[in-house]
Specification:
The chain is α+β, with helices and mostly antiparallel strands. The protein is built from ten helices and nine strands. A hairpin with a 2-residue loop joins strand 4 and strand 5.
Length: 257
């Protein structure tokens, strides 16, 4: 069971902010930074970049402070007897970079909402949210390193998957990140194992499959809704990825029901 004492997101502090608890709390503290900060690690102050998480177990020395004009973080102080937390393999009392800080930030927003209203399924909702948050942090720990370009790339990929019908081009994507098209293609493929335009195409075809399964649009309408201005081009790409034409795909779905 988890008991939240306090949870907050986008907590902002001025440049003189210091959090110093020499004996630690008698419960757990999880902090996720949105700005640089200094942490007391192994007997000295070390600066860490934004988008780091640090998990303090009960009675662990806590010391961190601002090192910029403004310090912002998400944090939760809680008690737990859940093994996914008490026996976690996450580093304790030492910051580590997050793979997807925006996702974790959204989980904090949901935790604040759940804790504020405490509706009928409060305990299970809190548990699911914390389990998901700890899973995301564990995913971060298996990465060897996180480059400065990783976070804008994550935002770009999320935007692509959320709106595949947008008229994406390599040039326009590179412009949003203020890098060259060639460099974008290189780091995108290195980060995600797929080129940015192949990611666009894959996302469009997944959307087309959804339309073919559950809607009564024509192939021409689906092509347009998925960002294609040429239906023949759409059909070629659909068959290349799925192995069948859109028409045949819809027939297979119909016969399987």
């Amino acid at each position: 069971m988890n008991t939240i004492f306090y949870v907050e997101y986008d907590a902002a502090h001025h440049s003189s902010f210091v959090f110093d608890i020499p004996e630690g709390h008698d419960c757990w503290l999880l902090v996720i930074t949105q700005s640089p900060a200094l942490f007391w690690i192994d007997g000295e102050l070390k600066e860490y970049p934004p988008y780091c998480a640090v998990l303090y177990p009960p009675h662990h020395k806590i010391y961190y402070r601002a090192c910029a004009d403004r310090y912002v973080n998400d944090w939760i102080r809680f008690q737990t007897d859940e093994l996914y937390i008490t026996a976690t393999s996450l580093p304790l009392g030492e910051p580590f970079a997050l793979n997807d800080p925006e996702y974790c930030h959204k989980l904090f927003q949901l935790l604040v909402t759940e804790h504020s209203f405490q509706n009928e399924y409060y305990e299970s909702s809190i548990d699911y949210l914390l389990r998901t948050l700890f899973n995301k942090m564990l995913e971060s720990c298996v990465r060897e390193s996180i480059s400065p370009q990783h976070y804008p790339l994550m935002k770009l990929r999320t935007a692509i998957h959320n709106d595949p019908s947008n008229p994406w081009t390599v040039a326009e994507m590179a412009k949003t990140l203020n890098i060259s098209p060639g460099y974008l293609q290189s780091i995108y493929k290195r980060s995600f194992g797929v080129s940015c335009m192949d990611d666009v195409i894959d996302s469009r075809i997944r959307l087309a499959q959804e339309y073919l399964r559950h809607y009564h649009y024509t192939v021409v309408e689906i092509a347009d809704r998925c960002g294609y201005r040429n239906v023949e081009h759409f059909c070629r790409q659909f068959k290349k990825i799925t192995g069948v034409s859109p028409k045949r795909y819809k027939q297979q779905i119909h016969f399987s029901k």
